[in-house]
């Protein structure tokens, strides 16, 4: 966990967030070109995620083999449990996007923040200040205004959305818990879970993708172009940085902070989509983005205030006044410490 210790200047924290934002936005842009009908029409999202984790597992294996990182023990059952939850998150999100409207899909993503808050309260008895709750509400409203359009839902889609939200929230909370429990770094934990996720996604992914798109990935691979291969490799490379930074950020901060500040990526995606892909950017989108950014700024301020209050409280509890020190010293002078070995009393000298 030494890699997760926060530096005094906060440079490494900013670097972790920057890596996550840049890699996440980059992979969305690359996948947009790879998977869109105007691009390379690679409509196999779950299989592509399997490729991502396979490359991540390869990088982790090389890192461990060269001694750059060390492997720490984590029980296999916990790795399997975590991988199942993570894969449920991926599959649930894909099914939710397919079965529901884009508007409802965005609502499910926004609902992760309150769900994470409730789960952390239940599992870890974590409390949140009024300022933090207010800033979270502002972020949710802002992102909702700029992303939510038509909202249509059906029974199957609603169930898939609920599974996706629950699994994703539990996964993000578990990342921080496992890192703390086993004193393991973000990359070391990722290198242990990535092979399991890659194997399971590459086995079951093609069947899920066939259900979602009606196409077989094997048929696509027979006629794949070099352009598609290059974008798949680019997507996998960005995924390594995206996965590492996700584990790194949650290890340093919290699942709630990751969700709140992660909505900055939504704002970046909307802006880049308008610049690069001629996506429509209305006055409603712009106002929503401004509200969301304002909420993120308020959230950052509220978290820092909360930390300062907790630190002051902790110092107050652990420090002793001069009067308390004098009473403690007098008590030691009046009560000699008995030496069991010699069977006699020794007076404590006041130096």
From TrEMBL:
Domain Sugar phosphate transporter per the UniProt entry, residue ranges: 24-300
Subcellular location: Membrane
Native organism: Ambrosia artemisiifolia
A Pfam family hit: TPT
Topology of the protein relative to the lipid bilayer: Multi-pass membrane protein
Any GO CC annotation of this UniProt entry: membrane
Membrane-spanning intervals of the chain: 42-62, 74-97, 194-212, 224-244, 256-277, 283-302
This protein's UniProt keywords: Membrane, Transmembrane, Transmembrane helix
InterPro entries for this protein: EmrE-like, Sugar_P_trans_dom, TPT_transporter
UniProt-listed SUPFAM superfamilies: Multidrug resistance efflux transporter EmrE (SSF103481)
UniProt name for this protein: Sugar phosphate transporter domain-containing protein
Membrane found in the keyword field: yes
Statement: the UniProt record of this protein carries the keyword Secreted: no
């Amino acid at each position: 966990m030494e890699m997760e210790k926060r530096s005094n200047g906060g440079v490494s924290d900013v670097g972790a967030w920057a890596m996550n934002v840049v890699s996440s936005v980059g992979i969305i842009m690359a996948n947009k070109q790879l998977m869109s009908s105007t691009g390379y029409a690679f409509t196999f999202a779950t299989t592509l995620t399997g490729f991502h984790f396979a490359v991540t597992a390869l990088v982790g294996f090389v890192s461990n083999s060269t001694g750059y990182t060390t492997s720490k023990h984590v029980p296999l059952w916990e790795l399997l449990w975590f991988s199942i939850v993570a894969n449920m998150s991926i599959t649930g999100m894909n099914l939710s996007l397919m079965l529901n409207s884009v508007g409802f899909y965005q609502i499910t993503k926004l609902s992760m923040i309150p769900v994470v808050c409730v789960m952390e309260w239940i599992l870890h008895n974590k409390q949140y200040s009024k300022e933090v709750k207010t800033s979270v509400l502002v972020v949710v409203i802002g992102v909702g205004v700029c992303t939510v359009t038509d909202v249509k839902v059906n029974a199957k889609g609603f169930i898939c959305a609920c599974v996706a939200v629950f699994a994703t929230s539990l996964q993000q909370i578990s990342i921080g818990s496992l890192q703390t429990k086993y004193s393991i770094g973000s990359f070391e934990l990722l290198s242990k879970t990535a092979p399991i996720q890659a194997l399971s996604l590459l086995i079951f992914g093609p069947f899920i993708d066939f259900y979602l798109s009606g196409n077989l990935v094997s048929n696509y691979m027979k006629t794949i172009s070099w352009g598609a291969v290059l974008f798949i490799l680019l997507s996998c490379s960005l995924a390594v940085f995206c996965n590492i930074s996700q584990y790194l950020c949650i290890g340093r901060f919290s699942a709630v902070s990751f969700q709140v500040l992660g909505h900055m990526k939504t704002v970046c995606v909307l802006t880049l989509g308008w610049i690069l892909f001629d996506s429509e950017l209305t006055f409603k989108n712009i106002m929503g983005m401004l509200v969301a950014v304002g909420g993120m700024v308020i959230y950052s301020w509220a978290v820092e205030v909360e930390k300062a209050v907790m630190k002051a409280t902790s110092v107050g509890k652990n420090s002793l006044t001069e009067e308390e020190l004098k009473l403690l010293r007098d008590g030691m002078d009046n009560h000699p410490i008995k030496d069991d070995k010699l069977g006699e009393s020794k007076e404590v000298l006041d130096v």
